[in-house]
Amino acid sequence: MKRSAAAVREVIFAEIKTIQKKAGGKAKPLTDKSPLFGSGAGLDSLDLAELIVRLERKLGADPFKAGRTVRTVKELSAYYAKHSKK
After folding, report:
1. How many CA atoms lie within 13 A of 57 on its CB side?
2. For a Cys-Cys bond, which of 18, 27, 32, 69 suits 74, CB 3.0-4.6 Å?
3. For residue 62, with 0-12 CB atoms within 10 Å meaning exposed, 13-18 middle and 19 or more buried, which class applies?
4. How many of the other CB atoms lie within 10 Å of CB of 34?
5. Which CATH number fits domain 5-83: 1.10.1200.10, 1.20.1560.10, 1.10.10.1760, 3.40.50.2300?
6. Of 26 and 19, which is predicted with more confidence?
7. How confident is the model at residue 26 (pLDDT cuts 50, 70, 90)?
């Protein structure tokens, strides 16, 4: 069964926070407008790759394989809300 947009958003926020903590920092506050890089979620390119792999396993889609570029939490949430298969 496909997840609701709210459920997809929760999965994304949880996975970002897991990666932030794993990288040695504490989870930064996130909003839908938060950039994935820099002052937003603070991810680097390897963190983003890990995030996409985790989300593909949980939600069954990959924005990069589909040729999409995502820069914010909102863009990532919108992609997975529309394209998740799990």
Report:
1. 6
2. 32
3. middle
4. 20
5. 1.10.1200.10
6. 19
7. confident
Own/partner pairs, 48-55, CB within 8 angstroms, 24+ separation: 50/19, 51/15, 51/16, 51/19, 54/15, 54/18, 54/19, 55/11, 55/12, 55/15, 55/80
- Domain ranges for the chain, please list them: 5-83
Tokens 């680097």: give the residue: 44
List pLDDT tens digits, range 35-65. 999 888 999 999 999 999 999 999 999 999 9
Tokens found for residue 80: 């997975």
CB 33 within 8 A of CB 75: no
Query: What separation in angstroms does the CA of 67 have from each of 6, 11, 52?
Result: 24, 22, 13
